[in-house]
Hints:
Blueprint: H1 7-31, H2 40-48, H3 60-63, H4 70-84, E1 93-97, E2 101-107, E3 116-122, H5 134-137, H6 153-161, H7 164-187, E4 195-199, E5 202-206, E6 209-210, E7 213-214, H8 225-244, E8 247-248, E9 257-260, E10 263-266, E11 273-274, H9 281-298, H10 305-317
Antiparallel strand pairs: 1-2, 2-3, 3-5, 4-5, 6-7, 8-11, 9-10
Helix pairs in contact: 1-2, 6-7, 8-9, 9-10
The structure holds adenosine-5'-triphosphate and magnesium ion (MG).
Amino acid sequence: xxxxxxxxxxxxxxxxxxxxxxxxxxxxxxxxxxxxxxxxxxxxxxxxxxxxxxxxxxxxxxxxxxxxxxxxxxxxxxxxxxxxxxxxxxxxxxxxxxxxxxxxxxxxxxxxxxxxxxxxxxxxxxxxxxxxxxxxxxxxxxxxxxxxxxxxxxxxxxxxxxxxxxxxxxxxxxxxxxxxxxxxxxxxxxxxxxxxxxxxxxxxxxxxxxxxxxxxxxxxxxxxxxxxxxxxxxxxxxxxxxxxxxxxxxxxxxxxxxxxxxxxxxxxxxxxxxxxxxxxxxxxxxxxxxxxxxxxxxxxxxxxxxxxxxxxxxxxxxxxx
Length: 321
Ligand SMILES: Nc1ncnc2c1ncn2[C@@H]1O[C@H](COP(=O)(O)OP(=O)(O)OP(=O)(O)O)[C@@H](O)[C@H]1O
Ligand SMILES: [Mg+2]
């Protein structure tokens, strides 16, 4: 399968940088009262004058955007393969723009048995944040576009030095890791959205919510007293299941747990670490459990995060799970 289309990612990186540079040059020239050679508005138009007609399919969300808005081309490019594969029929709305990604709502091909699909599109801008991921990346394999481990010296050096090629590898590793983990956990019965497909910067998964809107995160709702304990137990069961696969979520909190019709769904896995090889795994596990408990205790659940973390970790390290 054709997994990575990275060229346009680079193109957008280039465009962002180029626009910034031209804006800066323009301001500098204005300050020195010189006449600008290039008006940034013109530059912006030149740089974002993509040809929608190269795509047979422009999703309705993108078509409604200003033709010069880079999101229009970004969304169209990112999902066109899924449209060709007959997985989605459109992109209708932006669900949420997060730190690293935008999530969009897409009507599904009816044959898939679901009405809606969530498309998570990682932003090219995220490349600049990869510097901070050392703590999470420790002990993780570097994957190429076929999902195979990259072992060469050249690749390792490129990753270390953050060359463009190195950043490209880091970016792919990050996304493929999220997708692979989500699939493994879903297949073993974890409460995570069913992953459907991955191409380049985009992951498709089951959408939690309905036509009116996405499921809220726990942080956005108040729980009824009788729901708190069973839902906390359920989250902890998921934490245990993840650990039995050697994973610690690493960013678990009420912000990354969706609530829908009395049930929880855990999302957002790029920070997942391998408990066998990452020295921070236990600290991250403790932090995850601490945050989750803080939330549920507010609604009357009883939990001792320190005991819970130690119990889980002991069982894990003694091979009892
Ligand atoms: N499968 C889904 N169904 C419905 N809504 C979803 C789904 N996945 C994500 N969302 C919504 O999109 C938001 C962002 O998703 P996610 O947390 O995976 O990305 P992120 O870039 O890490 O965001 P953040 O920086 O807010 O953590 C979530 O808070 C949730 O509201
Ligand atoms: Mg999130």
